[in-house]
Amino acid sequence: MFTAMPINLRLDFDSQLVNYILNAQHGKKIAVILNEFGEEIGVERAMINEGEGGALVEEWVELANGCICCTVKHSLVQALEQLIQRKERLDHILLETTGLANPAPLASVLWLDDQLESAVKLDSIVTVSFILR
């Protein structure tokens, strides 16, 4: 029986949670698709790779210099298609973008392409925010 690859869409202002997820001992093989732009390019990847015990990231894709819901939408679809071809090596896809992103257009990207529509399922949309005291 075919099982669609679960995708977790995370809108975040900080990478501490993704760092925790990738360093935790849960036994899952997680692909990370990260939308970064400006001065932030490469910062999270460097932090993850230097994580405690050397985080094991099966696949890492950076979509740089553009909003994932408009400028780099085509790159996102291509990245997802490439990951789906290696689905036997993955348990989950984590799609992380800035906390300023609108989740509706991002979720709709998953149904832009016939191959993706049957191969992935949107598992959750999580927004992480800060509370200043």
From TrEMBL:
Residue ranges occupied by any CobW/HypB/UreG nucleotide-binding domain in the UniProt entry: 16-128
GO cellular component terms given for this protein: cytoplasm
Gene3D superfamilies listed in its UniProt record: P-loop containing nucleotide triphosphate hydrolases (3.40.50.300)
Protein name: CobW/HypB/UreG nucleotide-binding domain-containing protein
